[in-house]
Amino acid sequence: MVKKKAIFFDRDGTLIKTKITTDNKPVAIKIIDELVIFKSVKKILKNLKKNYLLFIITNQPDVARKTNIKKNVIKINSVLKKKLFITDILTCYCDDEKCQFRKPNTGMIIKSSKKYNLELKESYVIGDRWKDIDAGNKAGCKTIFIDKKYEEKINSKPNYRIKYFYELKKIFKI
Q: Does the model's pTM come out above 0.85?
């Protein structure tokens, strides 16, 4: 059976606007009213869907921390899945760094790979944080870092580093 190519997107800060703390760190949105999809996202994903299965992989530890509820996360994800041509959304709700599904661990990528018969060497992970890039590199995917200049170090080298989502058009020649 022919393996398929995929693109795994981080959610907050990559596809949608995120809040930024006073110490320049990103924080996930909590409710549907805060949902703002970045301008170029829908058009770019529509083009990418022609050659790739599209996934969102997102850590949502606020549920375990009891600063948000699962219902809110599911509602936001559901709207994104409908609007953005997404094949599937995988969410890790825990706050345990050892959890296999919590990025930078590869559990969400590996689970998708098995379920959808994916060729990870031909797939990409795109995100705005070091955890996204580490997860992608560990899973054997190509990685694209959207550098938002957060106050955190990037641990492993991405294949590409861009400043804005629309720059994906150059990388994927769309």
A: yes
